[in-house]
Amino acid sequence: MEKIDEIIRQVIGRMSAGAQGNQKETVDVWKSVVGEKIYHHTKVAGIKDETLVVFVDSSATMYSLGVDKKRILMEIQKQISEIKKIDLRVGKIHE
Known about the structure:
Elements: H1 4-34, H2 36-39, E1 42-48, E2 51-56, H3 59-67, H4 69-79, E3 85-90
Parallel strand pairs: 2-3
Antiparallel strand pairs: 1-2
C-alpha cells in the first residue's frame, strides 16, 4: 500500500504536467496567430477566467496588437474555444 505523501506527490506532479502542457499549447497558438516578429515582443502569462493574459514590451506593441485584437481573438478561439477575451499589459517579457 502506498503512503499518502507518495500519492499526493504523484497527483501534484500530474497536475503540474497538465498545466505546463496547456501553457505550451496556448503559447504555440499565440505565436502562430500573431507571427514570429510580434511574438518576440510578447509573453503569454496564461488564461484566467476565460481571458488570455499577455504581457507586451511597449505601448507601441500594445497599440499594434490592439488594432488587430478582434481578428487575433477570433483566430485563437478556433483552436482554444475557452478564451473569450485578450488582456494586453505592458510589462517584462524576459526573465
